[in-house]
Amino acid sequence: MALIPAWVRSLWEVWDVRILVLLSLNLQIILYILGNRRKYISSVWISIIVWLAYLMADWVATVALGMLSHAQVYNHSNNAFGPIWAPLILLHLGGPYTITAYSLEDNELWMRHFLALVVQVSVAVRVILTSWRNFWFSYLSIPAFVAGIIKYAERTWVLKLVSNDKLGNIVPFDNVSNTIEEENYECALLMAQKLVKQFKCYMENYDTSAFGFPIGPGYMNSVWDIETHFWDAIEVEMGLMYDLLYTKAAKTFTTGGCILRFISFACTVSVLIGFFCFIFGGGQWHEHYSMIDIAITGVLLVGALALEIYAVAILLSSDWTMLWLIKLNKSKWVIQLGGKFPWFFPMLKRKRWSKMMGQFDLIGFCLKKDESRLSKLSSRILGLLGIEEKVKRHLHKTCVAVPSELYSTFLNYIYYLNNRRDINPAVKEGLFQEDLDFYSFAFYEQIVILHIVTEMCYHDTSQNSTNSENHVNQTKETCRIMSHYIMYLFLMSPTLLPVVVSDDLLRNLIVRLKSFLENVQDVSRACQMLKTISPAMEIGFTARMMAEGMQRKQEEERWGMLKSMWLRTLCYAAIKGQKNDHLQQLRQGGELLTLLWFFIPQCDTLSGVNITIIDRELNYSPD
Predict the structure, then answer these.
(1) Mean pLDDT of the chain
(2) What pTM does this model have?
(3) What is the residue-wise DSSP string for 484-495?
(4) Residue 295 domain flag
């Protein structure tokens, strides 16, 4: 008895290629729509869907092309549309404009894609030659093949360009005018285009002890300019960097790229027109060809043209198109039309990253019992896989929008570090009068201690006045947001921080804290109980002593000091971050710490800050 019934095998033999080519088209649609959205949407589900579609797209197209070749050569199929389907599969293998690489490592695999290009083009040629007949579809395969090979070769070439670029040569529009116009978006875009090229060079020689790469004297000429355009420029720069690393921007926005795109588009249109002329031109074609294959061919061609039109729309609404118009001195009318028809010019108000901060309340997490959203069965399965704790952390995390005042806070803090010897030299090391050497702890321990101190001070009501000034309350909330954000990075994205901590160490730390707070029901009560922690738990005891020292200070001084410590922690983490980890983060919606990573080494370019001084001032962690 056969394991697979005969009727299932016969059905698959009839529908195998049909199903695969339609699946390949659907995967392309997913990549076109979601491939670029991961730049500004921080969503696990989008990342998973794009990852699956990216991996499956090449595999499905390759298998479909192989099965089509086998069927045509050995006459296992009476499908007369193989000469068109094979080039259209090459078109799918070329991938969309919105995503060429899922991760940085994919760019380094350009040679593998080149070999795949040679093999798949050879297979497509074989299909066309073995199924060539003197009828319409054989001749239509020629423009379809041209479009397919252009798209596939373009993708491989882009991967090679990105992987080999060391000096920012792939950045389009080198000769854009340096003139700063009055429009905020235009000014920020010009600055970002200059910065991204310089930052590409900087990354190749990443050295946290020697920052800075001046663009030229007088590029930014006043504090008003900095406050107005600085953060917009950094955000646009992040978006441009994403485009260069993960899309076809490096080739598309060149003269050669535009010509190839036009040829590919024209070929696709010509094939579609020829197909419809054949279908609606009369004749008895329905007696000789399968209606199902006719329908599938129509879907493939219409889908290919629709995706090309969608790609053109994305290109026209991109920051790179605006840079091209600025280069041609045609940007004014885009700005004016953008005010009247904002839906047609989304780049004027588009998000360049998610602008969200992850939040993780460590004490609140330790108070949770077994009432999580995981069932007993799923907990047992996750436990066997060794990821139960990580999943529970993920379920506990939340997100908040980045407070608008946090940007100016960072900029002011950088100015303070640069000029601290002139402003307040007494604040250098003696943050506490207590005999505590906080900075002798490892960086990850400092994060945990400071997080607990912030929670204890936040929930302490013994000296909080109901008449506190608004700016004190704002500082208090800002401190807590930064505290939860750093803890989120520490537990959920530790690769972005300059820490090396094993999962066992993290698990033991959380277990000890959980056991101490075993009978506590809420965070306020837990903060009160932490005042009784013994010296046996060194981190907790240090946090207790620091919190008691803080609580003896006036509220404004207390929260001012905590804010300085968290800003110091964030800036230190940004300076010491690893290049690849931050560039990988661009494809997951971006991260505030990544924004700071772009921001800090460019402060001297945009605001005259000496970053070498900043690095020395922040380098407080023990060796």
Answers:
(1) 80
(2) 0.88
(3) HHHHHHHHH-GG
(4) yes
